[in-house]
Every structure is written in C-alpha cells, then in structure tokens.
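Let's study a protein:

___
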Amino acid sequence: MFLTISTTGTPDRPATDLGFLLHKHPESAQAFPTSYGTAHVLYPEASAERCTAALLLEVDPVALVRRGKGKGRGGAPDAALAQYVNDRPYAASSLLAVALRTVFSSALRGVCAARPERAEEALPLRVEVPALPARGGPDLVRALFEPLGWAVEAEAVPLDERFPEWGASRYVRLVLEGELRLAQALRHLYVLLPVLDDAKHYWVSADEVDKLLRAGEGWLAGHPEQKLITSRYLARRWSLTRQAQERLELVRLADADDIKVEDLDNAVAADADTEPGEAGGAGGGGGAACEMSVAEERTESLAVRRRAAILAELEACGAARVLDLGCGQGQLVQALLKDARFREIMGVDVSVRALTIAGRRLRLDRLGERQAARVRLIQGSLAYTDKRLKGYDAAVLSEVVEHLDLPRLPALEYAVFGAARPRTVLVTTPNVEYNVRWETLPAGHSRHSDHRFEWTRAQFREWAERVGGRHGYRVRYVPVGPDDAEVGPPTQMAVFTLAGSDGAGPRGAEKEKEEAA
C-alpha cells in the first residue's frame, strides 16, 4: 500500500521544506507501528528543486483478521471471501487513511513550528496512488477531487492487460496535481480514500462524525457530493449520517451569513429541555422566561395562551397541513400532533440542539406508524427559499421574527410569503409596550437576550401591512394574553390570508365578514 506526495521549490523556498511540514526528516527512513502493520516514511528524492515523500504501509494480514471486523460483519468484500488473501496489503483504503492520521498528525492539523509561514502557503503538490479501489470508477474519483481544486488523472486498471476483453477492475491509478496547503491535501486524502473504497476495516462509532467534520472543515459543507461522502465515510449508518449532515448544514448556513456556528445555533441552551407550558427558546411558542408575571404564573403561562390562540386560528382557517417555522423545542408541534385534524406537520429550525430536544419531546422513535407519518422535523434557515416548504395550508412564525437582525427580515419575508406562499400565515411577536407590566423585567431590557428588536403595536402593524400588500395577503390582528387598555396585550398576532383564497374554512369566513363589517 503506497502513496507519494511531491512538491517543487526554488533555492529561496526549497522543496525540502516538505520535510519540516510533514515533521519527517528527508535524510532518514522512519518506521511507525500501527494496529495492522508498519508504516514507513521515506524520501525517494529530496533536493531544493523537487522533493517526494512516500508513505508505505506494510499490512499484517493476520493482525487484520484478528483485530478487524472479521468475516461476515461488514468488512471489505474481498476479506469476507478470503480472510488471508485479499487486496488490503496493496490497495489504498481506510488502512492507509488511518496511517496518514497516525504518521502525519501534526501536518493534518497544519502545525509547523519550524516553518509556520510555509504551513499557511499553497504549495504545488502532486499526489500519486498506484492502486486505489474506487467503487464508482474514474468518474466518481473526478467528481470527488476536482471540486476541491485538483487536476485529476484517474486511469482504470485492467483486470488483465493480456485479456483486454475482460474489462477494467475496480482499481484506478490516481494522480492529483494542484496548489493547496499541505494540511488541506492530507485532509482530502484522509476522508476520500475510504470513501472511494467504500469499506472500513474498523467499527464506525459516533466519534467518527467528529473526525469527519474536523477533517472536512472548510471544504466538506459545500462539496457537491457531500451526501455521498458523508454516507460512505460513516459506513452508511443512517443515524450518524443524519447527524453529520445536520451539522454540515449548520456550517454552510453560518458561512453563508458570515457568522460563527455557535451564534447561529443559539436557539436553546445546550442543556435546555423544558416541558410544554414552560418558558423556552425562540419558535414553537416557547417564549422567554421573563414572559410570565407572578399573577399569570399562578394561572396559565403566556406560552400556553399563545399556543391556544394559534391552534384556534389554524382550526378556523381549516388548515390540515401546517408548517411550524422556527419550531424550537417542539411545543407547538406536539400540540398539533395531538389534534387529528392536522394531517401533516413539519417543524423547521436552524438549531440542531433545538431539533434534538424536539425529537425527544415528541418521542419520534416511539411513535406508531400512522402518527410518525404525520410529522417531520427538518433543519433549515428561514433566510433562504426552500422547496420543501411549498404546498402547505398554513405556516406559523411564533416568536421568531424578533430573533432575526432587521436587515435579514426581507429575506425571511420572501422565503415565506413570496416563495412558500401558504394560504394562511400566523406571526406572533412580543409587544414591547407591555414590557412595563413585567414585574421581573428591568426597564429598557428585552424579554430575551437573543431578541434583536421588539416592536410596538404600531410598528408591527406597519410591517405586517407592508408585507401583506407586497405579497398579496390580507391581514387582521389578534391580541394574545390580557389586553391592557393602556399598553395592549403582551403578545401580538397577525393573521395573513392569501388574497383570493377560497379555502378559509367556515369559521375563518365568519371572522372575515365580521372584520369587513
């Protein structure tokens, strides 16, 4: 099992700096024990003009059988047929990827104290792998490496050169050329070699997700073959693949908005897991802890009243398919699931933590087949159009808009009202005028630390009328909670109805007649 990495240089910036970057001296051959054999590092050539480092992995077939997954338990197909006679000692696979991580661990992290400036530079690199198992052939090899900036030569190896009619084997001779940081190149190889082989010699556990995301930092989230890479790397374990894809989607959204992932995935605290009716994060009718006065705490929380008002409006408009946009911990989704009139419910949130808590709340893994078919939880950002949101009767934005920066509101408006265009949209948001009634809220403070703004009744109506007029929706307003004669209700709700909609339901039609009167 063999791999070479070459670079070129000049007298001022010699190619032998490759030895510093790999932390392996060009003038010595070194050997490193691995779980399945011995890895050797040597330099076939080392001059200022050109330097080549070679990694040779000698695999012990007996150790592979004894320490590996064994016959019939998901190992490489060749090993399942013949445990001691197979391609593992010769073809680049996950064994070579593990050797890369073991021998070049510092280089993978981009650490080089002796030449730190070189570690940050893009180098002219050439990588050669004489025998690479590629399930998908040369086309898949190119599809995986070319988007990363490599020029790819992938030549299919014939089964037998003397008998061309037998066709090609599943192996390719791979040559990659490009100008990249060495750490980037090693990370590409570490992830994609086992992906192409599509077999791992060890049990894939939950920590493999972290390994994948660390090695894929900066390139995997935006790769066009991300789903295939993730699935194959994690040995097609569905739960791990879904977890990795959710985290990668969060990275992609954070990159698109030029913010940190932790700033985007902040809907709930890491240990949050409140029960229905308690205060929670944004979305799904959760509300903030300060949204409950002493008097209300003794009776019924504002979060519960808000969900009741939303359910009443959804019933009135006759909605059967409902979106909970910014579903948070899933309190509203849970309430909808209890009512058989809502045949299809989809909760959407950008926060992986919130969706995880919502899944536990709903006990998705224990639902019966009919109940499970009614509900879906998906990760997504409301700042982008999403074809998955089309075709629903109603959408709910409960305590969501105030968590967005004002410059991003137009994107949400178009994604919901312009692209998804449900027949009914319900939007609830705090009424800042009512804040003076909260006994525990200091003057001038928002109800939640993540609120970017809080509107007065006039500001909310101005926004709602503008959005409704632009996208063809009629708007009416519903107070939620005690309607104070001086400052209004604690929560204000706008009910948007698509103009010309003929499916408003009997109670919705009666309300519209009353409004017209």
